[in-house]
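User: Please fill in residues for this 145-position structure.
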């Protein structure tokens, strides 16, 4: 009986995202272009309802606009692997900023607009904002940097 319970618990935990996604299956993260002054980085997870609402808006904004000096990136937290999340943040040059922002409790479903020179989070974008407000937030962040 204990074995059945242990197997059932392991199966449930695995289905809930407790298992790590191998690095080969995660989206590759690359450093932003040298001319980027602002990094618009989304903390994303496939299981996140806020991500499912915000991601299409960000994609539409990116396709419809050109933002000088702004690079876009997404850090995948689907597997709930904090080490992998922070490794991707380091690759983007924002490891310290993300650690200071989240610590031990990584939150998903937001776009963080980060000054790449100072590491400061200029502002955040969330699912409640429409595309016009998102464009304004990114444009304002670029103007401040």
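Assistant: Residues filled in for all 145 positions:
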């Amino acid at each position: 009986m204990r074995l059945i319970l242990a197997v059932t618990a392991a199966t449930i935990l695995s289905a809930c995202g407790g298992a790590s996604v191998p690095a080969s299956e995660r989206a590759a993260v690359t450093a932003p272009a040298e001319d980027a002054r602002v990094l618009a980085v989304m903390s994303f997870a496939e299981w996140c309802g806020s991500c499912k609402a915000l991601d299409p808006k960000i994609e539409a904004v990116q396709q419809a606009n050109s933002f000088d000096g702004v690079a876009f990136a997404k850090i995948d937290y689907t597997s709930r692997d904090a080490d992998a999340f922070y490794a991707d943040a380091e690759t983007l040059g924002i490891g310290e900023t993300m650690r200071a922002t989240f610590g031990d409790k990584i939150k998903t479903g937001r776009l963080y607009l980060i000054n790449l020179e100072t590491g400061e989070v200029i502002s955040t974008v969330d699912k409640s904002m429409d595309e016009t407000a998102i464009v304004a937030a990114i444009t304002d962040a670029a103007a401040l940097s």
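For context: The CA atoms of residues 40 and 72 lie 5 Å apart.
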